[in-house]
Amino acid sequence: MVALTQLVRPGAPAIYGGFTSNVDMRTGAPAFGTPEYTKAAMVSGQLARRYRLPYRSSNVNSSNCVDVQAAYESGMALWGCIMGGVNMVEHAAGWLEGGLTASFEKLIVDAEMLQMMREFLQPLDTSGLAEAVEAIAEVGPGGHFFGVGHTLARFETAFYSPLLSDWRNFETWEEGGSIDGTRRANVIWKQLLVSYQEPAMDPARREELSAFVARRKREIEAGR
Fold first, then answer.
1. Mind listing the pLDDT tens digit for each residue in 28-73?
2. 55: Cβ–Cβ under 8 A, 6 or more apart, which residues?
3. Going by DSSP bridges, is the β-strand pair 95-96/101-102 parallel, antiparallel, or unpaired?
4. Which of 11, 15, 34, 109 lies in the 20 to 30 Å Cα band around 165?
5. Do residues 63 and 70 touch, judged by C-beta distance below 8 A?
6. pTM for this one?
7. Under a CB-based contact definition with an 8 Å cutoff, are residues 164 and 154 in contact?
8. What is the pLDDT of residues 147-159, one digit of tens each?
């Protein structure tokens, strides 16, 4: 496809995409988020660099519901993206059932995973090591760091703040209703939908887009 774009329009911007995976040899169904998929994503990244093109990969899984399989297969797929040096992640959030369906709950799970990967890729900041060493001396043996100035100045921003994860201990989580991650994701997407505000758009442009959609529908129905 990249070669075809250059034949049609030499120099047209293009991105190299890899979507290679294995199948279930018992049924022939495609399998995603497998070790083989992850290896293929890394190889595709190497090919993209050889061709000197940006690289596109995907966050995929074969689970039929938002469960542990959906999470660990997506985790494998995302590591293939990261280790492959991805420039754009397509099908980044909401993918389910091998791409046959999309899930709002899975979209929230994926948003959490993508944010964690983004945070993981941030360079390690060692600029404040001297202050940290001073804090260790200030606390001393047998003390704790929760009340020291170094902690108080950083506790709100020092670590990744999760969208979905619940870090409470079991007793507190149980007292709060024992709500698992999938149900928390359900609550989050519904809250986001209620609070959504449509971006402003020029009325003339909106009318033009609506007219285009209406025209294309008529053309498609007419077989053109």
1. 888 999 999 999 999 999 999 999 999 999 999 999 999 999 999 9
2. 15, 16, 17, 18, 44, 45, 48, 49, 84, 85, 86, 87, 88
3. antiparallel
4. 34
5. yes
6. 0.83
7. no
8. 888 888 888 888 8
